[in-house]
Write a structure and sequence with these properties.
Layout (H helix, E strand, L loop, with lengths): L1 H29 L9 H8 L3 H13 L3 E4 L4 E4 L1 H12 L2 H17 L3 E7 L2 E8 L15 E3 L4 H8 L3 H10 L12 H14 L2 E4 L6 E9 L5 E10 L8 H22 L1
Antiparallel strand pairs: 1-2, 3-4, 3-8, 4-5, 6-7, 7-8
Helix pairs in contact: 1-3, 2-3, 5-9, 6-8
Length: about 270
């Protein structure tokens, strides 16, 4: 009897630990480019858990450097330990290893900046950026930042090659409007994704941030599956309708070279 009670207690403790780990992971995933800093109340509302539980989670995560607190605003943001893990991740990703030399070379050639992104959930995560010699917009594309898929060039490339059920799920959740040019209607999104598949790249003009244009192309594995993207973001006054065709050629060539290098590494 005592042994059974002890086993039940151990199972209850283990379940509580698993729940805490799950909530900690959910908490870290709440942060994004649009919501880089959040307070206890906001985190509690988004996660659907008590403020006291959120406070315990952020205290633990902060002690390990995964969360940092702004003493002026009393809000929390992702900590430096996240970046350390990101560096470990990218250093062991063959596709990232294949991309780096190509992107560095292209950055020198064009003076533009480039982003390396992967698709997770409904978002694109930028795992690396190569800064060229021209003006860059760091706030929009920090390493580790996440952006919506439906209104970014990288995201539209990923969505164009996703199974129908994935695209439908994202559309059915609602396509949030960020600017006056954000596509929010299902039939228009489907039409855009068909166009991206036909031409093999995406161009997003002011859909997430007004005045920002980006061009993206897919990086493929040996099976032809899209596993990452290379994108070129920049101010609309520099990435214009006149030079988009030339810049697109650079992005497409980079994606092709990275894909070949990646496939040779496998």
């Amino acid at each position: 009897m005592c042994m059974m009670k002890e086993e039940m207690t151990m199972k209850s403790t283990e379940d509580e630990r698993l729940s805490s780990v799950q909530n900690a992971i959910r908490l870290l995933n709440v942060f994004s480019v649009e919501e880089a800093e959040l307070g206890i109340s906001e985190l509690s509302d988004k996660l659907g858990i008590a403020k006291s539980t959120v406070h315990r989670l952020v205290t633990t995560l902060a002690s390990e450097g995964f969360i940092a607190k702004d003493k002026n605003t009393n809000q929390y943001r992702l900590g430096i330990s996240i970046l350390a893990l990101s560096n470990v991740l990218t250093s062991t990703m063959p596709v990232h290893q294949a991309a780096l030399p190509v992107l560095h070379e292209l950055g020198k050639k064009t003076k533009e900046s480039f982003l390396f992104g992967i698709f997770r959930g409904d978002e694109v995560i930028f795992l690396n950026r190569i800064v060229g010699g021209l003006d860059f917009i760091p706030a929009l594309s920090e390493i580790g930042s996440r952006v919506p898929a439906h209104c970014t060039s990288s995201g539209q490339v990923f969505l164009a090659y996703q199974p129908k059920e994935v695209v439908d799920r994202i559309i059915n959740k609602g396509l949030k409007r960020y600017t006056k040019t954000t596509i929010t209607e299902a039939h228009l999104m489907h039409a855009l994704l068909r166009k991206v598949r036909e031409q093999g790249y995406a161009v997003s003009i002011g859909e997430l941030h007004e005045g920002i244009t980006s061009i993206a192309a897919p990086i493929r594995n040996a099976k032809g599956q899209v596993v990452a993207t290379v994108s070129m973001p920049g101010p609309a006054q520099r990435i214009t309708p006149d030079n988009i065709p030339l810049l697109t050629k650079h992005v497409l060539q980079a994606a092709k070279e990275i894909s070949l290098r990646y496939q040779q590494l496998k």
